[in-house]
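LOG
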Amino acid sequence: MDWGDQFDDIERHTQWGLDLLEKYVKFVKERTEIEQAYAKQLRNLVKKYLPKRNTREDPESKFCQYQAFLQVVKELNDFAGQREVVAENLTTRICVELSKHGQELKQERKSHFQEGRRAQQQLENSFKQLENSKRKFERDCREAEKAMLAAEKLDQDLNATKADVEKAKQQANLRSHMAEESKNEYASFLQKFNRDQSQFYFLEMPQIFNKLQEMDERRTVRLKEGYGVFSETERQVMPIIGKCLDGMKAAADSVNEKNDSQVLIELHKSGFERPGDVDFEDFSQPINRTSSDSSLGTPRGTLDGRLDPRLPGKNKGKRWLFSKKNKLPPPPLSPVVSAPPPSSSSATNGPPSPKFTRDPLSYCLNEINKTVKPRIASFRSLKRGPVITEDFSHLPPEQRRKKLQQKIEERNRELQKEIDQRDALNKMKDVYQKTPQMGDPTSLEPKISETLSNIEKLRLEIQKYESWLVEAESRMLSNRPDNTLRYNHTRASEQPPWTPCGWSYPQKQPLTLSPYWSLSPDATHSDDSQDALNQPIYTEFDEDFEEDLASPIGTCVAMYQFEGSSEGTISMTEGEELSLMEEDKGDGWTRVRRSKGGEGYVPTSYLRVTLN
């Protein structure tokens, strides 16, 4: 293989190297496009599942399982960021740099081959000059030889004149001189060609080949570095990706089912009492006693006709667990017929029965219909839901207290921001006053006035919410009987799951007739008074009267001494027996009565309670 073939092979090899470099750059570019599309899809996924507003206000944000989910989504967002870092590094360190280096190599390669082409062209030109001088020398030598032979021939010819002979000799000498000059020229061109050829093959072409070799080796080294960057870029983000994965694992480990159950309890704990048992109301007594003039039936209470002091207003304190029930309005009151004070005989046999002018069964059914209709109408109103008030009085006590505390904290944060803004504006105003060229101090007055107005508004709101909070806490601490007494006490250890202390069970309340009838024994039963006798006659008891009728629901023994120095409390000594008037409503206090008189609240944990 001659040098020309080697030059062409080197040219093909260097071109192949540049093509490989461009192919690798294209490969990395497509890889970065995949990484960017992957990161973009991950970002869209994170944006889709991350909440668009502040989650601190959502009740779901308090559950650790939801917090863990948000943490996983956030870690995935960081993971997407690392994929973007990979794409950016690959683009910068490989695509951009190698593309730039490839363009430089193309220019350098072009210059080297142009230099080699010039050297080849110079050598070819020198060779052509040599060939031309060689042919001229050959031609002049033949011409000189012919002239010499012609001169010798004329010299031997006897017929030739002396002038012809001299002329032939001069021509021969001229041709000989020209041949000698051609010989010298040929020798000169030959030396020049040999020199050029030696320089071409031993100096110029080796230098060009060395430059091309260096260029190709530099290209190979940069391609090698690009291969390394391809893997190193991925390796650099592995620690951060590992931290993202560790964060996801930590979020998974942070999920605590017990804690979430407790959070659910705290979120929905109302602080209401559980409702007591519903009394059995015997509607069959009026039917069984129609043959006598005695009372229609024993009022709801004890079987001997005496009113049970626990009954007044029993259903008024019902609270519901799974829905916010409104109080059922009492049936419409009928005119109360005044009755004389009961005698001893009436106290024994119960109040006198009304005199019926028609079948007692029809009378009872009529009373049931009259009682059921208003109750059904009242249930329709429950669908409209509670009216939301500014002081959150529509919420249960515990939820109201938490909501008010949350509002106070929010207003305090806003107040602190406004105060900081006010201070910053005042400092800026001072700066403007000291250096007027920086600004006009009067331009800040509207903003300062607005900030002061906002501060005053926020302080008023905080005072308002704090007053409502004090009211709510005072009601929880000094809660008085609400005409609801519990008959059965279920211990906290016996409660089923998802019924923490303080929750109430939903109970279906039967539709009943009111037992409080007051009829005059001397009432006449004319046609005009027939409808009045068929109407149930209700009486409302005053709160104080109901409290006077309340009797102890159990007994308790003081396990520790309590001074009872605050208002509403009562002192007790260790071992003292007390009457239990009202159980703990979830606030840690129990109302008791001393045997010598006097009622008040004592800590529940200081007592050993026994219910009737």
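LOG (cont.) second protein
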Amino acid sequence: MDALSGAGPRRARCSLGAASPGARAAAAPWARFSAWLECVCVVTFDLELGQALELVYPSDFRLTDKEKSSICYLSFPDSHSGCLGDTQFSFRIRQCSGQKSPWRAEDRHYNSGAPTPLQREPAHYFGYVYFRQVKDSSMKRGYFQKSLVLVSRLPFVRLFQALLSLIAPEYFDKSAPCLEAVCSEIDEWPAPVPGQTLNLPVMGVVLQVHIPSRVDKPEYGPPKPCSHENLLPAPVILTSVHELDLFRCFQPVLTHVQTLWELMLLGEPLVVLAPSPATSSEMVLALISCLQPLKFCCDYRPYFTIHDSEFKEFTTRTQAPPNVVLGVTNPFFIKTLQHWPHILRVGEPKMAGDLPKQVKLKKPSRLKTLDAKPGLYTAYSAHLHRDKALLKRLLKGLQKKKPWDTQTALLRRHLLELTQSFIIPLEHYMASLMPLQKNITPWKTPPQIRPFRQDDFLRSLEHAGPQLTCILKGDWLGLYRRFFKSPHFDGWYRQRHKEMAQKLEALHLEAICEANIETWMKDKSEVEVVDLVLKLREKLVQAQGHQLPVKEATLQRAQLYIETVIGSLPKDLQAVLCPP
């Protein structure tokens, strides 16, 4: 057993039993497997050691002792949850510094086409957990307690929960051979490509999923089955790889959805105290999904315990609370995080009947006891007025017993339109800062993107503000002013500025390729010509690495220009620029 005693990474194995250092090298390189998962872990409860890592597969995947410890503690519900039977939840941990795996070309290709919130995480691992706790008289403690954990950099919670539902029950019955077979099947899957619908066979079932693309239009129904394949057995169609049932998650807080949306938009520190890891992780993931298509730029932990390596960092009172959304189940956090400005305490979600009792807004000073009632404990006052029409429609849907996915679609559409109404004026203003294409000439450095001036933007809202697309009234100006101070404005601005700078470079490359290069070279010195070659090569490398949005024809012409220019130089310079 690989316990938490500081043992180093496991070596490769021929099977999941006996060690064999060269096995993985001799077998498959796991390239396709690692496009979806980093590794699979099995965590068990040891009487002497507590939670312990029983297995990592592929067995030569390197986890630090700190990462192993985090995975072990976060893979089990804490003692306050009392989870009997099977339960699923998720967590997110920071990857240890200095241990980052190299960023592969496939990762960059996926991220270039994926919506920003669904891009592969460079510095965090997601853990998707299937935990089983059942009475077992053969065990010393009287219970069988074990977790199967999928570790990935992809935020595909729905897909990996569905995968665990197939794998885990079988694994708990048949153990290691089943797991090895499943990993081999995953290693045969095609890589996730944004915009494609894929068929993923596993354990006699075919999961059909659509990988979202940044050019996809929002859809609320299931993806259409692939018409060009007659699959037997018929595929199980997942309506989404990542979207949760928002209506079920938000049932107890529907009257405060807009307040919570504002808190997420502003990157405010928030604690979600829930009765179980399943409820806590789903609520945290639902909250951060409120901002889509805007990327959530703050840290978030769907499930967090007192054993986490960041516990001291997040609970210190010597500085302001960090911009983190924490999901916890231990009431101890009420005392430990009492200085945090926003605490949401919720009960178990209900699946049927009338709308459950809504949590009330309460002052943080009332949150003093461990048995505090459910509520949103905050002194924050929302900038926008509540959408009463939305709540009425949701209540009417409950009364008429409309399908839950219909209710979720209504709620998701409302939040999407709210976020888009907020972001569109920012996008329009940002686009106005881009230099005109007529000012981009081939032989001069491209003009600079003009600076973002907050006062100019706020003045533009009078005739081009969110009121054009959103009926909600309120203090939009005040909300934008607070947004400018948040990590989300910084993240959004940096991303948009980067994209615009790349577009500018691409337009400049196109202008060079459309110009007559031989005419330009006539009166130029060798130094100027060599400088042009080096700059063109640099742009070509950027473009080929999917960092510049240019057409293939432009790349081919740029390569031809480089060859033409080098051919005009003396032989000694040609040898320097094109060594054999």
